Each structure stands twice: as C-alpha cells, then as structure tokens.
Amino acid sequence: MLTQRTWIKNPLAVFTANQLDAAGGLVIEGSRIAELLSAGQQPARPVDSVIDAAECVLLPGLINTHHHFYQTLTRAWAPVVNAPLFPWLKQLYPVWARLQPEALALASRVAMAELLLSGCTTTTDHHYLFPQGMEEAIDVQVEVVGELGMRALLTRGSMSLGEDDGGLPPMHTVQSAEVILEDSQRLIQRYHQRGEGAWMQIALAPCSPFSVTPDIMRESAAMAQREDVRLHTHLAETLDEEQFCLERFGLRTVDYLDSVGWLSDRTWLAHGIHFNEEEIRRLGAAGTGICHCPVSNMRLASGMCPTRDLEAAGAPIGLGVDGSASNDASNLMYEARQALYLQRLRYGTEYATPERILGWATRGSARVIGREDIGQLAVGKQADLALFRLDELRFSGSHDPIAALLLCGAERADSVMVGGKWRVREGQIVGLDVKSLIARHRHAAKRLFADI
Ligand SMILES: [Zn+2]
C-alpha cells in the first residue's frame, strides 16, 4: 500500500525556528514531514490531497510541558480565587482527595480537548493524586489520550509526606514509598514507548519538596536512571517553598535538588522562579529543563521565571499551562501570549519576541521533555502541526502574521494534525461530541463538591 501524501499548500506564513524556506508549504507522507517547498515549487511526487493554507499560519504542533488535568473540575472555585499557593493547596487538597476514575477521565478529556483546539499536539500531565479507588489513575489517562489521538508524556506523580510528618497534604492523600515505586515500575513497563514517533511515554514526578520525602526523590531518580525515563517536579515556585526547604532540610531548593540526585538533564522543573545567580549557573550547566507557566505564576502571585538568565546559562525553556485550578484555561496559545507580555516586563521588548516565545512552545518544550522528533517543521520530523486562520476579526489589519498570532490573541486553531492524522478540522475536534462532554464534566465537577 502506498503511503498517503498531503500537500499543505502556500501558507500565509510558516514558523520554522531554523529559518528554513517553506513558503510553498510542506508535504506530509504518512506520519512524517517529507518535503519543505519554497515559493512556486511543486512536490517531488504526486500528492493524494491538497490543503489550501493561503489564509493560515502554519506552526509546529505546540507542546505543553506542565499540567494537572484533574484540576479542570475545580476551576474558579470561590474560596481560593484570591489565595496564594500554600493556602490555595490546603483548601483544595480535601476536595481533590474525593476524585474518582470516571471524573478523572472526563477532566482529562476536557483538558486535552482544550489543548488540541489551541494547536497543541503533545502534552504532559502531572498526576499525583491516588486516593482510595484511584490506584489506576494513570491507566485511566492513557485510555483518554488514545481516544483523542494526542501524543503524551504522562508523569506518575506522588505524595508521600503528609501533615502528621511535617508535610503539606492531608494524610489520606499520601502513599507509601513501596506503593509509589511499585506502581511507577509497572507503568513504565506497561506504557513507556521509546524512540522516534513515540505516542505514549511515562516519567516519574514526585510532587514537590513539601509533599514528598527525600527518599522518594532519591529512589525515583535511581529508577529513572535505570529505566531511562525522565524526572519532573515542581521547584522554586514560591518563597514559602524556599522557606520550607531551609527549615526542614537546611538547604535552598537547588541544593536540595542536587542532594537527592536530580540536578541533571533528565530533569525538568515546573515554574523555576526563585533562583539566585549561582543556582541559575548550576541548572544551566546541568542542562535541567524549566517549564515556564506565566498565567499560574501571575494568578498565585508566585513571581517571574528568570527565563533569559536560565537560557543564557544553558537551561532549555518550555511552556506549560499548569493545572486548571491556577490558570484556569488549558490554552497554550493564550499561555504564549502571556509569556510574551510577562517576560517583556522583566527583560524588555527586544528579548521577548513572538519568535522566541513560539520557539519555547515548540522546539524548547520538545527539548525540555527530551524529544528531537517533534517541535519543528523540518524534513524527517513527525507531522505534528497546527494551522491558524488569520481571516478572523481579531486579525483584520495586521501585517506580520507570526507576530499577529500572539499580539492579536490567536486562541483557536483551524486544523491540527498529529503524526499525520487530522485531529482538528475547521475548529472542531474530529469525532468528539463537545456538548455532551461539557454536560458530563460539569455534572462531575458539581458532584466533587457535594456536601462540602
Ligand atoms: Zn503544577
């Protein structure tokens, strides 16, 4: 059987971070990009279908490097709307502890649907809640990822340090080290795919310094090394956390990270805000990735990630929407726009260009999660891409199409392809009844708060 060839023809603009000429569009063959065409150039061989992209900007599929899907059930909850991280967490933990598999499946479907519609083709999720009945939470998520046809790096999160032992989460939300490690091993064996074009990967992700023991950090690092999978955690998000590390371990956050064997290029960190110069140098030298989550950082007033200094030191930077209880939208284009504006406040207009920020959302995020086969429009890479139409009202009168995406506020892709398959067409997810999903998800969100 011949492999299907599709020509995405003559886009208005193409975002190739490496300045490749693709004005004539690109040809997809099977699951990969086969040709990049310059203006007026014809494909080398006949194609089976042609997509006219004359009104569209073509981007590599965006990559989301931090999320908590389950939190879509607890968006904009009045008691925590105006709370900073620690009180926000303390009020939400008991609600989250009521999570059940069906609600997690709906929450994951909603989060991924939102991401897909914003042009995202690969996402991570950091799931660290395994109360009774939720022992197979990651298995539930694997199934939903398959339904939506996205690429995913699901992280087996964990919490092992409860309130009685000096941690932040309530005791009924934490698990023993044995259970965590056994399940981590099982998930890697069952689901982790290796190599080019992988659709499903597993990483290990103890939640944060204030919710896990140093032992779990060390054991997770050892398992990640042994199994060659990635490591993820929250770090240096707030000054409360820094204070916790100083009091409990007598160490600042990066010293703590180093002390448990995590300061490496296998690790990526969510937030990465409160670092001093020496810590930035060490993170850069180690090649530790940082996921910048601007909206969450602004909502919780956590601070600003020092992206320029981290980049200059050698740390890869990616973007993440973070969980929906602190964002509360799973829209990666919206996140890129906020990153541009927030980083301009810190480093000025000339640093935070649309090209740099879109670079973080694509190639940067790919580096952060250790992938070289996605995040770029180049021959041989996976055919993961998004088309944004610029004939909407919000773009009328704009000139530079790439800048217009962020400055005019693009938020919804017209078409999204993952591994050569269309997952979004004309702004709709192929095969998903969104109306019915919303009805079921809203019902599950209400039930979570019943009798509270
Ligand atoms: Zn988070």
Automatic annotation (TrEMBL):
GO MF terms, alphabetically ordered: deaminase activity; hydrolase activity, acting on carbon-nitrogen (but not peptide) bonds, in cyclic amidines; metal ion binding
Entry superkingdom: Bacteria
Keywords from the UniProt entry: Hydrolase, Metal-binding, Zinc
Domain annotation Amidohydrolase-related: ranges: 57-422
Stored Pfam families: Amidohydro_1
Ribosomal protein as UniProt keyword: no
InterPro entries (alphabetical): Amidohydro-rel (IPR006680), Metal-dep_hydrolase_composite (IPR011059), Metal_Hydrolase (IPR032466), MTA/SAH_deaminase (IPR050287)
Family the UniProt entry places it in: Belongs to the metallo-dependent hydrolases superfamily. ATZ/TRZ family.
Protein name, UniProt field: 8-oxoguanine deaminase
Organism: Rouxiella badensis
